[in-house]
Hints:
Distance between the termini: 37 Å
Strand content: under 5%
Number of helices: 4
Amino acid sequence: MTHTTAVRARTDQRPPDIERMRATVARLLGPDDAPDALPPAADELPTLVSTLRGHLELLVPEVEAAALRLHPDSIPRYCAIACAGEARGKLRAEPRPGFSGAVAYARRLARVLRDHYESAAETP
Length: 124
């Protein structure tokens, strides 16, 4: 399955729905991000992956824009830009074949999304 990561400029000026993002992440990672957490049902996995990708495609430009407003030499700016780059890499990646590969891919997306929304919440 090939994914295209086209980041569009947002015309909708409402802030990203952080609570919905957290709920989606929780479906895959659970409260403790334990490796033995039960995976989602096979029929809901494609929807979860698509939702996570959509959240990241919305949030990455938000994090980058917030980072650019910070002082060029600031550590938070550097961290936010690095986090955005990591997320873009995850969006370009392909899942390994099979259900377990798809679950692992979804969990990687969930972890990077969790890191992004926490960064976005902390970045002024």
